[in-house]
């Protein structure tokens, strides 16, 4: 019996010491590195999180609808034109595009100044559609208008024949031949009534 008891104590004592060592090691690690377990758990949690789909960046592409609104500030009328986005704006995000428009407004082309351009606004911006409003204060002539042809379209000039009063979408090619010949040389309209009567007659 003593022999058996001696053997049991021989195995039991080392096992107890081994378990005590493990326990003390774990407790010591928790004491000196209190945040380590939390970090490990966070890393495991992050690995288990599924990746979230990234939204498409809001930039202008070749498929973006470009809407240009020409606003007559005096009459309160708007002429809307839908075209493709000019190549120089492709790839721009909202901030870059607005900055580009602000720069344009500060230094507009001479042709725009002659039309009475006074500023612009970016009304809306998205990947599918962007709307820009160009504001004009059209010059009021004192002695009538002149109709001329530019790029096959009818353009209305003030009486000085230099200042553009209005661009139209009336194609000279769709006018009667005798009228087209007269407009190529320049037709004078004595007042707004005569001008708008012509525009209403030949606008599509």
Explain what this protein looks like in three dimensions.
The chain contains 6 helices and 8 strands; from the N terminus they run ααββααβββββαβα. With 204 residues, it is an alpha+beta fold. A 4-stranded mixed β-sheet has the order 2-1-4-3. It is rod-shaped. The chain starts with a helix and ends with a helix. The N terminus is likely disordered.
The CA-CA distance between the termini, in Å, is 120 Å
Percent of residues in beta strands?
25-35%
Which structural category fits the helices and strands?
A: alpha+beta
User: Element order, helices and strands?
Assistant: HHEEHHEEEEEHEH
Low-confidence stretches: 1-7
The radius of gyration computed from the alpha-carbon positions, rounded to a whole number of angstroms, is 39 Å
Number of strands: 8
Shape: rod-shaped
- The average pLDDT score comes to 80
Strand line-up of the largest beta sheet:
2-1-4-3
Q: Count the helices. How many?
A: 6
Helix residue percentage? 40-55%
